[in-house]
Each structure stands twice: as structure tokens, then as C-alpha cells.
Amino acid sequence: MIRFSAPLVALPAPMKTPSLDRIVSRLYILRLVQASPSTVFNLMERLRERGIDKNIRALRPILRSLLMARSITAELVEGNGRVYSITDAGRAELDAYLAHLNVLQDDMSETAE
């Protein structure tokens, strides 16, 4: 009789809590691709205009995460590379972020009074 042992499977690492910087970058990327589909270079330039200094190596994991969450899509366009666009799920995520920011702003306004 042949016995097969169960393959050893590594337990997934606990999910890291996203940093505020990563959340803000994610929010900005969603907002920028909502305004107009963009390449990674275009996103980098537009983020820098807003005071967020991200290089391509820092943006790619965030874009990958948004792609995996189906918040954005990437279309390969000849001469431009990948062009990122927002999806309905991305719009819902962006709306949720903005709603949380509005609540936070209201809370801060109330405590300031």
C-alpha cells in the first residue's frame, strides 16, 4: 500500500496593516485614474505635482495590489505601455475612502469648536 503524505504548506504570513503612506498613495492613484486613465510614468508625475514623491519601484506594488483587488485595470497600449483605468470596484473603494475622510473631517471640526 502506498501512502501519500499531505504536502507541507506554509501558513500565510499575517497580513500587515497598511501604512498611512500606502493608504494615501492608494487613494491618490484611484482618484487620478478616475480623472483620466494613466500610465505609471504619468501617475508618478501627477503625484509629484501634489507633493507625493514616489518612484516607479514604490508605485508598482500599489498598482499590483489595486489590480488584484480589481479596483483598476491595465491595458497594454502600443507606444505607451500599460494604461491604468478605474473599475466600478475602484470607484466604490474611492467613495468609501472619501466617506471616511469626511467623517474624520467632521469629527475634527467638532473637537476644534
Any overview of this molecule?
With 113 residues, this protein is mainly α. The chain has a single domain, classed as Arc Repressor Mutant, subunit A. 57% of the residues lie in helices and 11% in strands. It has four helices and two strands. It has a two-stranded antiparallel ribbon with strand order 1-2. Strand 1 and strand 2 form a beta hairpin. Helix 1 packs across helix 3 and helix 1 crosses helix 4. The radius of gyration is 19 Å and the shape is globular. The model has no long low-confidence stretch (mean pLDDT 84).
Quick structural overview:
This protein has a single domain, classed as Orthogonal Bundle (Arc Repressor Mutant, subunit A), CATH 1.10.10. Helices cover 57% and strands 11% of the residues. The protein has 4 helices and 2 strands; from the N terminus they run αααββα.
From the 3D coordinates, which CATH architecture would you assign?
Orthogonal Bundle
Strand arrangement in the largest pleated sheet: 1-2
Helix content range: 55-70%
Main beta-sheet annotation: 2 strands, antiparallel
The pLDDT mean sits at 84
Question: How many strands in all?
Answer: 2
Overall outline: globular
CATH C-level category: Mainly Alpha
Poorly predicted sequence stretches spanning 5 or more consecutive residues: none
H and E order? HHHEEH
Number of domains: 1
Instruction: For the record, give the distance between the C-alpha atoms at the N and C termini, rounded to a whole number.
Output: 78 Å
Helix/strand-derived class? Answer: mainly alpha
Based on CA atoms alone, the radius of gyration comes out at 19 Å
The named CATH superfamily: Winged helix-like DNA-binding domain superfamily/Winged helix DNA-binding domain
User: Oligomeric form of this entry?
Assistant: single chain
- In percent, how much strand structure appears in the residues? 5-15%
CATH topology term: Arc Repressor Mutant, subunit A
Number of DSSP helical runs: 4
